[in-house]
Q: What sequence folds into this?
């Protein structure tokens, strides 16, 4: 980050914050004066204040008493070094330089060191303020998937980590590498008053241990260096996942005596585990002899190379590909992509190769007669308590290994396993699949046109209108579209790895706003146009994420799919009511969110917000929003739309 920008932004923020404080001070004073006096004396509010209840204005300090605003990074520190400065050096050595935070006293020393380091010339540290720890971790989650790099989330001990825990669980289920650094006050003697006790825990990461790959509470700086390196390596090694380190405030604050030698930290080389070679050879033989093979993929392509390998495998076999959408696994308009005719493709299958499919038993259920093979790291990842591992699947070959890392060996084996005589049949299969996917596209487009002019606006029109204006730009879609009937994969044409990042993992609402802003931050570095379609229910869990986008000037087009409530759950209550024959008219109770204006909420946070109710107004609103985004700022359109 530009150090000049960092300090300027902070200065601006301080100025704005104190101005806001003055504005707020007056209504607060009026409340005290009017709430008590009229009740006591039965007089009107306007003339009532009792002199004793008046709060005298605070006099402004004389100019000489004001601290110079520039006192900070440039002047602090001198030659003195503190443990938290070394911690920052370690973060830098591991490229953990994108950091989300909401302040907490338990990591104040580390925060100060980050500010100090970020303020130095040539620093590449970016610390972004978030408004909720759940947003901070979701930010790092989205950032990791969009950038291929790891971000750190700083959270306060106990209360911060508890807020963060839902987002850590999403990252766990989504196999996303996130490093959470939680403050900690493990030494009771060092606790400064009763709140410190409330915010202390003897084993902080125990809160999240069921859904992290690794955690530790380092006791010394050499221990910190090894903990952080191990945490990084564990997070980044497939199956990737979240890790938590608790950093004791005592340790952060220690001064490092001059001449102390501390261990250097180096970024580890990550080598993913490949499936066993003989088993991959066996899988290749089975696939080479298949009449109707289907490749079922979920979190299979971890990198752009993974996407290329997936295409190579599918084309070699001319196999149908059914993409569950955990990552950008396969180009959406590739003729072999059969995702929109998933059921039919699986019912026709005689062999299914599942690549990093979490719910293999459920997802392959339609392929009742098929031989089933899997390559996956999921068996390395299980924990006993959380049931994210899904129903037990028993494929004929369950190859434990990272699918992407195993593909080169599988592809090489397939090249020799496919008999020359079988090539024509394979080509014919490809032609049939191409015709089927072309027909599916026509069907999708026809379906999207249904109710085109209806109000509330259809979700299909929402996606189609946006795509119409961004198709030639370098766009990235940051949501999966589960709650909008998957119009993205049906109508849009994502072909690059970065154009789609998958979804939350645990279906824990509140993921998308933070993750979208984190992913958008990664897109900003690449000059890409990030777009997200998020539910109103999901948005209301973590709306403060928008403020981070506005404050840190992160361009993002946020479309709110405003169907007026928790439609997914409303349908379930309706179903219950139907089954019990009690009528569905009251089934909205508890499932609606009326009276919200997301454009106003957005504007209140500094984001250009518009509301659209008439489909004819969509085009203009999208154009105006894109103009804002092209200037480097976020924009939101609240689209009053159909349930799905
Ligand atoms: C943290 C959390 N709480 C509750 C739920 C249950 N839940 C699943 S979908 C849903 C409604 C989502 O509403 P919205 O984002 O507006 O999407 P819609 O269903 O309306 O399309 C709820 C409450 C959840 N998945 N996660």
A:
């Amino acid at each position: 980050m530009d150090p000049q920008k960092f300090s300027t932004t902070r200065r601006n923020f301080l100025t704005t914050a104190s101005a806001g404080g003055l504005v707020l001070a007056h209504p607060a004073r009026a409340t005290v004066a009017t709430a008590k006096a009229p009740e006591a004396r039965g007089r009107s509010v306007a003339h009532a204040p009792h002199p004793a209840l008046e709060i005298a204005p605070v006099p402004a300090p004389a100019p000489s008493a004001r601290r110079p605003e520039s006192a900070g990074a440039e002047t602090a520190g001198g030659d003195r070094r503190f443990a938290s400065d070394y911690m920052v050096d370690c973060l830098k050595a591991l490229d953990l330089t994108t950091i989300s935070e909401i302040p907490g006293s338990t990591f104040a020393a580390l925060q100060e060191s980050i500010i100090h380091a970020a303020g130095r010339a040539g620093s590449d540290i970016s610390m972004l303020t978030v408004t909720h720890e759940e947003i901070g971790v979701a930010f790092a989650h989205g950032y990791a998937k969009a950038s291929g790099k790891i971000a750190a989330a700083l959270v306060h001990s106990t209360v911060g980590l508890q807020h963060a825990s839902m987002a850590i669980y999403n990252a766990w289920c989504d196999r996303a590498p996130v490093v959470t650094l939680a403050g900690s006050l493990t030494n009771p003697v060092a606790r400064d008053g009763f709140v410190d006790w409330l915010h202390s825990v003897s084993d902080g990461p125990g809160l999240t241990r069921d859904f992290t790959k690794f955690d530790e509470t380092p006791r010394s700086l050499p221990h910190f260096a090894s903990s952080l390196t191990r945490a990084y390596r564990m997070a980044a090694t497939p199956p990737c996942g979240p890790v938590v380190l608790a950093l004791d405030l005592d340790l952060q604050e220690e001064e490092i005596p001059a001449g102390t030698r501390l261990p250097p930290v180096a970024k580890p080389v990550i080598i993913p585990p490949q499936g066993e070679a003989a088993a991959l050879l066996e899988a290749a033989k089975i696939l080479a002899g298949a009449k109707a093979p289907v490749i079922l993929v979920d979190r299979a392509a971890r990198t752009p190379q993974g996407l290329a390998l997936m295409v190579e495998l599918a084309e070699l076999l001319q196999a149908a590909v059914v993409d569950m959408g955990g990552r950008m696994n396969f180009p959406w308009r590739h003729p072999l992509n059969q995702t929109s005719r998933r059921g039919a493709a699986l019912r026709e299958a005689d062999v299914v190769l599942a690549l990093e499919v979490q719910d293999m038993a459920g997802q392959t259920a339609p392929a009742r007669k098929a031989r089933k093979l899997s390559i996956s790291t999921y068996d390395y990842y299980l924990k006993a308590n959380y049931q994210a591992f899904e129903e037990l699947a028993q494929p004929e070959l369950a190859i434990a290994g990272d699918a992407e890392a195993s593909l080169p060996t599988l592809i090489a084996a397939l090249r020799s396993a496919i008999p020359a005589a079988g090539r024509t049949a394979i080509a014919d299969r490809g032609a049939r699949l191409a015709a089927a996917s072309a027909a599916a596209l026509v069907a999708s487009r026809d379906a999207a046109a249904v109710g085109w002019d209806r109000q509330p606006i259809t979700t299909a029109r929402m996606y189609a209108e946006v795509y119409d204006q961004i198709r030639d730009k370098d766009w990235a879609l940051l949501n999966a579209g589960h709650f909008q009937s998957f119009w993205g994969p049906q109508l849009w044409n994502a072909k690059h790895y970065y154009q789609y990042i998958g979804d939350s993992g645990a279906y824990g609402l509140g993921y998308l706003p933070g993750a979208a802003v984190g992913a958008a931050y990664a897109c900003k570095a690449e000059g890409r146009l990030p777009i997200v379609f998020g539910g109103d229910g999901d948005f209301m869990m973590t709306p403060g994420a928008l403020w981070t986008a506005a404050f840190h000037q992160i361009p993002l087009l946020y479309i709110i799919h405003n169907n007026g409530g928790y439609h997914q759950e409303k349908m379930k209550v309706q179903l219950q009511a139907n089954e019990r024959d009690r009528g569905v008219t009251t089934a909205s109770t508890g499932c609606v969110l009326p009276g919200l204006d997301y454009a106003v909420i957005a504007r209140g946070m500094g984001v250009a917000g518009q509301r659209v109710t008439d489909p004819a107004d969509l085009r203009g609103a999208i154009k105006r929003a894109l103009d804002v985004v092209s200037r480097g700022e976020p924009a939101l359109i609240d689209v009053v739309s159909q349930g799905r």
